Structures are given as C-alpha cells and as structure tokens.
Amino acid sequence: TQLLEQSPQFLSIQEGENLTVYCNSSSVFSSLQWYRQEPGEGPVLLVTVVTGGEVKKLKRLTFQFGDARKDSSLHITAAQPGDTGLYLCAGEGGSEKLVFGKGTKLTVNP
Amino acid sequence: DVKVTQSSRYLVKRTGEKVFLECVQDMDHENMFWYRQDPGLGLRLIYFSYDVKMKEKGDIPEGYSVSREKKERFSLILESASTNQTSMYLCASSSRTKQFFGPGTRLTVL
Description:
The complex is a heterodimer of chains A (110) and B (110). Chain A has strands spanning 5-7, 10-14, 19-24, 31-37, 44-49, 55-58, 61-65, 71-76, 85-92, 98-100, 104-109. Chain A is globular, with a radius of gyration of 13 Å. In chain A, strand 7 and strand 8 (71-76) form a beta hairpin. The model of chain A has no long low-confidence stretch (mean pLDDT 93). With 110 residues, chain A is mainly β. Chain B has 110 residues and is mainly β. Helix content of chain B is 0%, strand content 61%. Chain B has no helices and 11 strands. In chain B, strand 4 (31-38) and strand 5 (42-51) form a beta hairpin. Chain B starts with a strand and ends with a strand. Classes of the chains: A mainly beta (110), B mainly beta (110). The interface between A and B is medium-sized, with 20 and 24 residues.
C-alpha cells in the first residue's frame, strides 16, 4: 500500500514569514500533485510535478519533486493571509487513482 | 469553466435512513470518484468509476454503494446510515489524474 506522509499537520505563522510543507513516501510516484482546499470547498489543483528534481513556481509558491520521485515539498515565500487553507499532496501510483497525504492546515495571521 | 456539482452542501439524516448523494460533472470525464474527508484522516477513497456502469471499491467501501448510469452522474448511496458515516463527502472527476472536485456535502447522521 502506498502512503504519503505529510508534515507538519498544522502550521500557524505571521504574515511575511516563509514556510515549507513536506510530503514523503517510501514509494515511487509517476507524478505528484499539490492541492489547496479552503473551508467549505473542495480541493483545487495547484500544480503537478512529473520529473525527478523538477521545480515549479507559482507566484510565491515553489514546488519541488525529489530526484527519486518519492518526496516533494511546497515552499511559500512571504506568506499572506490569503494563503490560509489546507494543503494536500497527492501521488499518482500508476492508475488514475491518487494517494493523498493527510494535509497541512496553514493559518497565516495578519 | 469546468464544473463538478454536488446535490447538497449540508444534509442531516437519521440512523437507518437510506441516503443518496448525487454528483454531476460537465467535462465529459471517464473517471469519477467519491471520497470522505475526516479531520486527521485526510481524504479516503470510497469508490471510483472508470466508465458508465463500471465501478471499483476504494479503500473504505463498507456501508456504501454507488451507481453510474450516465457518464456525467455518479451517485453514492448509504444503504442504512450510521453515526460513524457523519463526514464531509467529496466527489471528483478526472482527466489524466488531474482531479476536479465538487464543493462537498457535509453529512450529519443523528
């Protein structure tokens, strides 16, 4: 069974601070996705990383896929209150099903 | 704009009732999914469907069934609702593993 361990589970920071969320597994994934979920809504896809070592940037968010395609990180620079939400990583194992991490609940205080 | 809709945002049912949760997508996707989301447990796959009338069990199918009579519609059925099925239910459809989620149905079973 493929598992994705996501850390930290909770993160509360001040506006302007930087943060990193980690997603780790002992399994290799063909791709890894990051979603963001706001309260009362469904998750929305932010990015997909496919190649080992790949780095993608989305404004102040930087996503990295590990060289061995077993782990990924999300780094937010100068966090803003609008970044508040639940961040989920999800790995594709080979079928169109995804394996989800348990999520990181981020709160950015003004 | 792509869209996944769910029939209810909030639902309150009594123990033993039969409950239907409906999901409709307008993207002509082959694959559709039902998840439940609980604090600390993340998203867990209940059932998924890769074509009309085709279905496969996910990680936690017990107490649930599904129906997919038309490509755009995927229904989740709780045959006899129990209090431990109180949860947020999320429907998704996918194109090449990129999943689009509905807003969720928060179900409370009393």
